[in-house]
Amino acid sequence: MFSDLVTDDILDVLKRTCVVLGRSSQNVIVQKRQKSLRDGDFCVPKGCFQINMEEFDHLKKSLIEESKQWVCPLREVKSDSYNSMLISLDRPLTYKTVISSVLRLNGQSPCLQGSKDAMLSVELQKQKEAKPTQTDLLEKTVLVCVPECDDCRSLDQLRGLVLTQHVVNLLHRNGLKTRLASFGDNVKVQKWLDLINFNMDIIRDSKEDCDVKNILDLARQSKYKLSQRSNDEEGNKVVHSETTSEHSAHKIKSDMLVLDAEKYLSSVSKEKGIYDKNLGKIHITDNDGITDSSIQIAHLQKCIEKMDQCDCVLHIIPDKKSFQLQKIDLGMHMLFGNTPNQIQMVFGSVAERKAPAARKIDAEEFYNLRFSQMKEASVMKYGECVKGAGWHQTIQNLTVASVKFELLLNVSRNTVKLDLSETNDFGGGVDNRAGAFVMYNCARLATLFKHFTKAVEDGIYPPMPRLESIDFSLLREEDEWTLFFNYIFPYNDIVRSTVVEMIPTKGIYSKIGTHKICNYLIGLSRCLSSYYSHTHVLVENRPNLLSTMYARLYLLEAVHTVMKDSLHLMGICPPTQL
Fold it and tell me: Which residues of the chain are in CATH 3.40.50.620 domains?
């Protein structure tokens, strides 16, 4: 929210001022900096926009003056040998506005009141008007098809479940409504759904529940129907019904039902090049009777009919299933005509690093390995007290977090490679320990605030003052601003960016940034760990120290809030203590 908002505001002022100066602004780029923030938070590189001193003075004056009305005003504009402009925010006001917004969204702080809230609403409305492509997603209802998991034995199936849960949470956070549909009703998968906190209502159907009569009727009447005969030795058409036994297959004289996808695609020019070129025919029935394609089409149509509104169907599928889902998509278009768009989020497989070709670990073995490693690490740190139901639940939460981080760390289409060394350092890989590292840092903050609350109850500290009375100019450390500017300031923009390309402008493949929150948390935890290791937050109760302590506590409360929120988006329960 704030990062994109300020970037757009700066760019808008520069372009309008360039018009006044009579010069082109076509190549102007405003970049958010990650390092050396002491010199500036945003920059305009000289490589894309060169200006003379007179133009610089004019642009600087326009930026400073207009930014006085922004929710995050500017403090300074300068230049150096590489950048035409280096732009710095007013840090105290930015701290206050952004932290206020973060805590208000979670109902945790009294925060700011009055004009600033109104100003923020105006700025947010400006952003919505400026970026209609993002707000087009609001209020849409998406049918999310849960990948087939059977008993969730394979790691690929487990990855599909974890991705689905994260995707649904991201869609909800960005204002979309969802319904979930699952083809099959295997009770064994429920164990995994409970374990990973996948507590969502799912429309379930099995093959036996699917009534394909309507599909057959529509296919016989379709203008895209092809006729192909398939006879047994006596010249009779053999049809095996999926709902009857093999021996009770009945013989009827009939034509095999096939739809001509090539004919359909040639009649809809805009669809050319979107689908696989090998999609020629779609079998509704074949030598064995009703095809899987027919059953899946019937299931999907039944799910859509159960919804009050369906704007889009999102299939989360392994790469090998993409071709079959294109058949379902085209089959529904040919049979039903005006049907919701279907898009695919394809995910890669899960493999083991340096594993023998013959060895293939399953999901349960992987989970048990991580659980035993977590338990061993806990025993080494806390001793023999690690036992009982409470510790079992804690270790289980840590294990689930570890598994999810490993499966979400990469771009969804890429292969995940797991290090399955049986040592308690998880093989020494950074990605293997990421989940435990993030959970530890979140627990540190939870413990810090418990200690502070207890100290207030014991009369050691006065109660936390209202945020509007905090002097954030006391946060003078660059580590504090780096932590804030790189992780709290752009948080809502990062969450929003995960679904911007969910509905592709061309094609059928959806891009959802399922790796972004995971990597964001790892970066945030590293930055927090570095800051926390050399900063003593809870200090002595002395007037000259308390003001800084309160400012830091509000900063860390905002950090804790975005960490917990990110973990919830991943379906992970945030830890409450070390």
Answer: 142-347
Q: What are phi and psi of 385, to 5 degrees?
A: -70, -10
- CA distance linking residue 146 with residue 123, whole number of Å: 38
- For 465-490, the pLDDT digits (tens) are 999 999 999 999 999 999 999 999 99
- Judge whether 62 and 13 are in contact, CB under 8 Å: yes
Cα separations (Å) of 235 from 245, 247, 251, 290?
Answer: 22, 19, 10, 19
pLDDT digit string, tens, across residues 297-351? 988 988 898 888 999 999 999 988 899 999 999 999 999 888 898 999 999 999 8
Give the C-alpha separation, 188 to 530, whole Å. Answer: 43
Domain 363-569, second-level architecture:
Orthogonal Bundle (1.10)
509: DSSP letter = B
Q: What average pLDDT score do residues 107-127 get? A: 41
φ, ψ for residue 231, nearest 5 deg = -110, 155
List every span in the chain annotated with CATH 3.30.1360: 1-89
As given in the structure block, the two tokens for residue 562 are 């975005």
Amino acid making up residue 68: K
**Identity at 170, one-letter amino acid code:** L
Report the Cα 244 to chain-centroid distance in Å. 43
Backbone φ/ψ region at 67: left (φ over 0), alpha (ψ -120 to 50), beta: alpha
Domain 1-89 has CATH 2.60.120: no
Q: Write out the E strands in 14-82.
A: 31-32, 42-45, 74-78
Report helix, strand or coil for 204: strand
- The model's pTM: 0.87
Say how many C-beta atoms besides its own lie within 10 A of residue 177's C-beta. 16
> SS3 for 421?
coil
Whether 43 contacts 14, CB under 8 Å: no
Pairwise CA distance, residues 567 & 438, whole Å: 9
Angle between helices 389-408 and 434-457 (to 10 degrees): 130
Cα–Cα dist 84/10, whole Å: 14
Separation CA 557–CA 553 (nearest Å): 6
The domain covering 142-347 belongs, at the CATH homologous superfamily level, to: HUPs (3.40.50.620)
